[in-house]
Amino acid sequence: MLPLHTRAKVSGTLPHPVLKVLGLAEALGTAVPRDRVAVHLPTGGPEVDFAALQELGFAALFRPDGGTAAGGTVLPEIHSLSHPEVVGTGDVVRVRQDNGQVGVLYRRGANANTLFLTEQCNSRCLMCSQPPRDEDDLWRVRELLELIPLVDPDLAQLGFTGGEPTLLGPLLPELLRACAAFLPQTGLHILTNGRNFSDPTVADMVGDALGRATWAIPLYADVPARHDYVVQAKGAFEQTVQGVYNLAERGHVIEIRFVVHAQTLPRLREFPEFVWRNMPFVSHVAFMGMEPMGYAKVNRNLLWVDPLDYGHCLSEAAWHLQDRGIPTSIYNVPLCVLPEEAWPLARQSISDWKNTYEPACDGCAVKQSCCGFFASHGPAWRSRGIKPFERMEAAE
Ligand code: SF4
Fold first, then answer.
1. What CATH number is associated with residue 332?
2. Looking at the whole model, is its pTM more than 0.90?
3. 388 Cβ closer than 6 Å to some ligand 1 atom
4. Which of 97, 174, 279, 298 is in the most buried spot, having the most CB atoms within 10 Å?
């Protein structure tokens, strides 16, 4: 697990807080405007003509494990990182001039890169890992519009998350257009509760995503009362289902997400047949273990079920859809708490910056294909089924 934040010392005045970090050779050949590039100069690297770099118009020097350049330079410098391993070449960082905080906004080579659009939401899901805040956070959109042109254009997939992105109104299409302009090869994976798409004019607004985006929409039951309770919003089920239909009618790709916990488990058996009968057009269904963060922690007593106790039901539900031609996955549930018949559907689903394993996992024969745990996982969320597999046992 590699964190997304560290501290640095900053000398001079940065021309911009959001910068792309590139090695010297790549910096000289990049299409990224030079005033947005911090040149990565590791200690022990070749000697560099700092005056020439300044003349070429680079934004800053990035010396993760060193002090300021010998003899000083007129270019601003980001240096002496408390954790130099946090930032690599190709990454895009936000550097706060005032306190030296460095945040990685895009990480080259990560298993998932996600843009956080807004903290606002119109639902209050019992297990929300990112509890909404009703604050004006339009600065995020402005920052994302600065960030998108700095993302590697060969990136296969970029996630959008929140909060509820449709609450941004016309700024959501603006972000979609920026992605189309700067990342034409990149697929988008957009988390939304889908409720606002029940309004056809909102569904019309996101046409720029057509053919490029998958809309990942949570549905927690086959009956309105249960879904509405889980998301703490009356009428949400009707809105989400209508939103799914409105997007589908316009040709969008849709993924359905079902988080498994004590409040959704009572409908897990019926849910797949509902999806198969009513939404056979969806491209993917994901059954997901909970991330123990935010409201999930607060509501633990309401939500916790040991996955060992629902593994067989989960396996049956997932195979019900997979066998009928809807690609289906199980996320965030370790292999040792799943029955083996479910393993072909289990994915390594946790973003690497928050993915961890227990000491018990060391030497486990299936660790390479197991999702492990969220970093926020603790004793209160530990299944009694965690146990490493011996090599022979796993191969059987
Ligand atoms: S012991 Fe660890 S690595 Fe092995 S299956 Fe369980 S959680 Fe996964």
1. 3.20.20.70
2. yes
3. yes
4. 279
Percent pLDDT > 90 in the chain is 90
Digit-coded pLDDT (tens) for 121-171: 999 999 999 999 988 888 999 999 999 999 999 999 999 999 999 999 999
One domain, residues 91 and 119: no
C-alpha 305/C-alpha 159 separation (Å) is 29
Are 313 and 240 in the same domain?
yes
Atom of ligand 1 nearest to the CA of 389: 4
Whether 68 has a pLDDT exceeding 90, the answer reads no
Q: Tell me, using a 6 A CB cutoff, whether residue 386 lines ligand 1.
A: yes
Q: Is the Cβ atom of 334 under 6 angstroms away from ligand 1?
A: yes
Let me know whether 148 and 223 are in one domain. yes
DSSP 69: P
| 371 domain residue, yes or no | no
Q: Please check whether residue 243 lies inside any domain of the structure.
A: yes
Is residue 336 in contact with ligand 1, taking CB distance under 6 Å? yes
70 with 139, same domain? no
Question: Which ligand 1 atom sits nearest the alpha carbon of residue 361?
Answer: 2
What does residue 42 show for φ and ψ, rounded to 5 degrees? -70, 155
Ligand 1 centroid to 326 CA: how many Å?
Answer: 27
